[in-house]
Structure to design on (109 residues):
């Protein structure tokens, strides 16, 4: 599962995103005594801005689902394509993942 709420499970993307977000913030809280001048303000900001920071999850999921329906592919494939496009085209990882997408999409590529 990623911070945007993608795990392939049955939970809605927002619920997944919220659960992961809360987990990350809780884990950060465990370390705030190690560097209180930096971590404590970050944890406070994350707690106070949770709704605003996660507000994009449902919108993004709906847009990805529309694209997936339009091209008759799983939402996970559309998400993967977005992730590939964000990679550095000079990296091996880009070309490996691009090849995987081409394999998944076959003639639709």
């Amino acid at each position: 599962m990623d911070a945007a709420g993608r795990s392939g499970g049955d939970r809605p993307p927002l619920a997944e995103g919220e659960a992961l977000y809360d987990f990350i913030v809780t884990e950060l809280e465990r370390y705030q005594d190690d560097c209180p001048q930096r971590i404590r303000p970050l944890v406070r900001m994350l707690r106070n801005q949770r709704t605003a920071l996660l507000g994009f999850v449902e919108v993004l999921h709906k847009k990805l689902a529309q694209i997936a329906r339009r091209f008759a592919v799983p939402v996970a494939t559309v998400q993967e394509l977005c992730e590939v496009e964000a990679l550095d085209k000079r990296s091996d990882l880009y070309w490996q993942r691009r090849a995987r997408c081409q394999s998944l999409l076959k003639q639709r590529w």
Summary: The chain has six helices and no strands. The chain has two domains: 1-72, 73-109.
